[in-house]
Amino acid sequence: MNADNPQELERIDGLMRSASSRSPLGMRINPQIGGGSIAALSTATATSKFGVALRDEGAREWVVRAYAERPWLTRLHAHTGSQGIPLTLLARGVAETYELAEEINARIGRPQIDTLDIGGGLG
User: Fold this and answer.
1) Res. 57 pLDDT band, cuts 50 70 90
2) Nearest to 112 by CA among 66, 79, 80
3) For range 96-112, the mean pLDDT
4) Interior/surface letters 60-73, b for 16+ CB within 10 angstroms, e for the rest
5) What sections of the chain are H helices per DSSP?
6) Is the sign of the CA dihedral 65, 107, 47, 87 positive or negative?
7) Contact criterion met (CB below 8 Å) for 82 and 38
């Protein structure tokens, strides 16, 4: 399961205070790298409703802090697009997600993120 925004992460926080989980938990990010040829299906644009928008002011730092405060967050998900994105755009989204995972792990001093979900979208 991936939190899509700060509000969803707060709901998961509440559940984690009253229960334990062995389920893989993570956060969905939007690398905001651009859209594909089908605008209605593009999910990595500046206005996408999916994921924490990494290029918004303060968002990247918030994501790093969220992981530092929650050792049970071990996954990072980015959905860079749906049908209509070129392979180069998908690869750029994967690279940016990987760089963020490496940054998080380095800044918190442990290999916390153990899985990257690069989403779908390659036709």
Assistant:
1) very high
2) 66
3) 96
4) beebbebbeebebb
5) 6-18, 59-69, 87-108
6) negative
7) yes
Asked if residue 42 lies in contact with residue 89, where contact means CB atoms within 8 angstroms, the answer is: no
Q: Tokens 């303060």 correspond to what residue? A: 58
Strand partners of residue 30? 53
Q: Is the pTM of this model over 0.70?
A: yes
Q: CA dihedral defined by 67, 68, 73, 78, rounded to 10 degrees? A: 20
Distance from C-alpha of 69 to C-alpha of 17, rounded to nearest angstrom = 13
Q: Could you read off the pLDDT of 68-90 as tens digits, one per residue?
A: 999 999 999 987 766 667 788 88
For residues 40 and 38, give the distance between their C-alpha atoms in angstroms, rounded to a whole number. 6
- Contacts for 96 with CB less than 8 Å, ≥ 6 apart: 31, 33, 54, 78
- Flag the least confident range among 30-34, 38-42, 74-78, 89-93: 38-42
The first and second tokens of residue 88, run together, are 């180069």
Both tokens of residue 91? Answer: 């690869």
